[in-house]
Amino acid sequence: MEKKRIVFLYTEIATYFLACIEKLAQQPNIEITVIRWPVNQEAPFDFSFSPHIKFYNRKDFETDQKLIDFVKELQPSVVYSSGWIDKGYLKVCKYYKNRIPVIVGFDNQWTGSLKQQVAKLVSPFKILNHFSHCWVPGVLQEEYAKKLGFKKEQILTGFYSCDFDFFHNQYLSNKLEKEKAFPKRFIYVGRYYEFKGIKNLWSAFTELQKEFPNEWELWCLGNGDIEPVSHPQIKHFGFVQPSDLNSYIKSTGVFVLPSFFEPWGVVVHEYASAGFPIICSDKVGARTAFVENNYNGYIYKSDSITELKDAMKRIILADNAALNVMGERSVEKAKNITPEKWVQQLMKLIK
User: Fold this and answer.
1) Percent of the chain with pLDDT over 70
2) Do residues 157 and 138 touch, judged by C-beta distance below 8 A?
3) What does 268-294 look like in DSSP terms, one character per residue?
4) Parent domain of 87
5) What b/e sequence results for 167-194 when a residue is b if at least 16 CB atoms lie within 10 Å of its CB, and e otherwise?
6) Radius of gyration from C-alpha coordinates of the chain
7) Same domain for 231 and 106
8) What is the tally of structural domains in the chain?
9) pLDDT band at 199 (very low <50, low <70, confident <90, very high)
10) In terms of domains, do 151 and 211 share one?
11) Which of 59, 130, 259, 310 is the most exposed place for a label (fewest CB within 10 A)?
12) 176 and 323 together in one domain
């Protein structure tokens, strides 16, 4: 059987992408090459790479021609590019456009901004002439893809999948314990930046504790340029490697993502897979796949501390059984996107 070689021209890799290509590497007669940008120092993930996948640093190709020549030698069956920002990546894609499937990935939601209107106008000359397909996370990005001129049959969805097995195993391991005593702790996982809405989260939680004193805590995992707030019931743990999350997942009960801007947010998928009720703002793209208001969590208006506070209060007032049911519903939603389904999408395109 002929080998199929897949080349990923990637920006900053993440553990969820690795989970998907690890599954892909298990397919027979598949060879995977990833060219990637350096690790973002704001999120210093400690990656372990599979021996079945070859990784190269983008900066090792001093010229675009060297990059093109390198990919040509690989004789790929499919090329994937993260967006259209890297000019060298674009040149590779243009070379292969009418020879093999060439996929572009992006997570931008359609907002109708001036920049997006311009992208829509220039797409035939800057985007569609480089790519045969696009692969996006969900419905909000699919809308943008259509505006850019991609036809329905050229659009794949579900590009961002969490490491479902890891997080779902946490759910299975902790299920009985959480049924007996649901952990009275909210958890936030993300960077400490203004656009993440973390200051609103802290304000909502502290105001709620004054107005309605209770034993719930808020655990925050991450770092950034915002100074951590000091409060007896808010705990800060800094950046935590994904492989070290087990104890935090076991000890907490409800996930909160208060972003003002979040094109997708794989972390929502992660905590849905782990069986958490979810509170998130209406700016979080992943809500469309994993959160249903009043069903497995609450969606609130991103700039409203009052609405966030109300959502948290509803959680605090809910009993153990109700919270566990919400968590089970999250798991069911999380199963709609998995690394296995990610692989199936790509293999269909190859075949």
Assistant:
1) 97
2) yes
3) HHHHHHTT--EEEETTBTTHHHH--BT
4) 4-162+338-350
5) bbebbeebeeebeeebbbbbbbbbbbbe
6) 21
7) no
8) 2
9) very high
10) no
11) 59
12) yes
